[in-house]
Specification:
This protein is 40% helix and 17% strand. It is built from six helices and eight strands; from the N terminus they run αααββαβββββαβα. Strand 6 and strand 7 form a beta hairpin. The longest helix is centred in the N-terminal third of the chain and has 17 residues. It is elongated, with a radius of gyration of 19 Å.
Length: 179
């Protein structure tokens, strides 16, 4: 039964894909094609967090984006290498426990290439510093209270001074959840 549904879905996608642009306007597919989801995501215009003028460290991704750390550059370049659509520090509106709205700037918002599902990726890079650790746990709690759960729509990478970002593990997560 599942094979039949998948085949039917693929055939419907192909029919829609072969329509002329004028006819596509007249047809609303039951399931939005992944190409359209990606195109819409990539067209999002936004303002990320500002960089502190005193911060002289400059890390640039292969796409030319400025990021805040060497590890974020590694993550961005790995996403790019796999053709995974992502946005750096795309703001999200959240609600706190008292019902007040506020903005969060996740390190990355990425799409699964097959499903179009949106994933938040956070990199916690200074976990051996108590204040940073506390803030990271607060941020994780905020994500959870707003429906972002580890392994469902949230990925977290972490490191300390003595234990750098494990690139092989990061790649496995990217392959499992975003490809």
């Amino acid at each position: 039964m599942n094979v039949l549904i998948i085949k039917l879905y693929e055939e419907m996608k192909q029919v829609y894909h072969e329509l002329t642009p004028g006819r596509k306007i007249l047809v609303k597919p039951l399931i939005t094609p992944i190409e359209d989801i990606i195109k819409e995501f990539e067209s999002i215009q936004y303002q990320g967090k500002e960089f502190n003028e005193e911060d002289t460290r400059e890390y640039y991704t292969s796409k030319g984006e400025r990021v805040r750390s060497k590890s974020e550059k590694i993550i961005a370049d790995e996403l790019c290498r796999h053709g995974i659509p992502y946005k750096y520090e795309l703001p999200i509106d959240f609600v706190d426990s008292r019902g007040r709205e506020f903005k969060v700037y996740p390190d990355f918002t990425a799409l699964n290439k097959r499903t179009g599902d949106k994933w938040i990726i956070e990199h916690f890079g200074l976990m051996d510093y108590p204040e940073y650790y506390d803030n990271a746990m607060l941020k994780l709690d905020t994500y959870e209270r707003n429906g972002y759960l580890l392994g469902k729509n949230l990925l977290i990478f972490h490191e300390t001074d003595r234990m750098p970002l494990n690139i092989k593990v990061m790649q496995k997560y990217i392959e499992k959840y975003l490809m």
